[in-house]
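Q: My labmate handed me this sequence with no annotations at all. I'd like to see what the chain might look like in three dimensions before we decide whether it's worth expressing. Could you predict it?
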Amino acid sequence: MSKTPRTRRDPAARREELMRVGHDMFVNKSFDEVSMEDVAKAAGVSAGLVYHYFGSKRAFAMEIVQYKANTLFELTEPDPDSPPVERLFKSLGKYIDFVEEHRYAFLNIYRSPDAPAPEVRAIAADAFVAHSNRMLDALRAEAGEPTEQQRLAVHGGIMCVKELCLNWLEDPKIDKAELRDLCAQSFLAILAAADWEASGPDGEPG
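A: Here is what I predict for the chain of 206 residues:
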């Protein structure tokens, strides 16, 4: 009796599958708790194949972190057809959903007593710059070239939102809608202190 020929997966599809499996494992466990063998077993492949695609467990984990950072950036892309304040609320809602879904990873990166790996710090720093630049571009489109105070306000507003979300993850005593409103109002207050007020849906200052 002839055996059914084994289907070979497209390399890009196989890589994406392994990334998905790895993400599902790393999202709720620490780096040391997951092995490449665990990933291989969950994906139904050999550990050698996982090493073939990613080289090492550290490199594999960093690719997942980078992939999720890119996903978050794309997910929170503002709707250009909405007023600035509405865009902010929508983006923050998506950000908070993402943070909640990846609670363990966020707390492990930003609240763990052990410093994150240098590669993780570099990815986080790049993500911060990307989000800041996008906010500054929106500010530029709305009110012209940002002042230095407004640049600092944008950076501070993003840091404020991150800290509010991390504190909420540690002790979620308010619901997500309340957290979103708090983050938005805090961000807008910081920008207002730098002499910038966004227009709300009715055209009035938000």
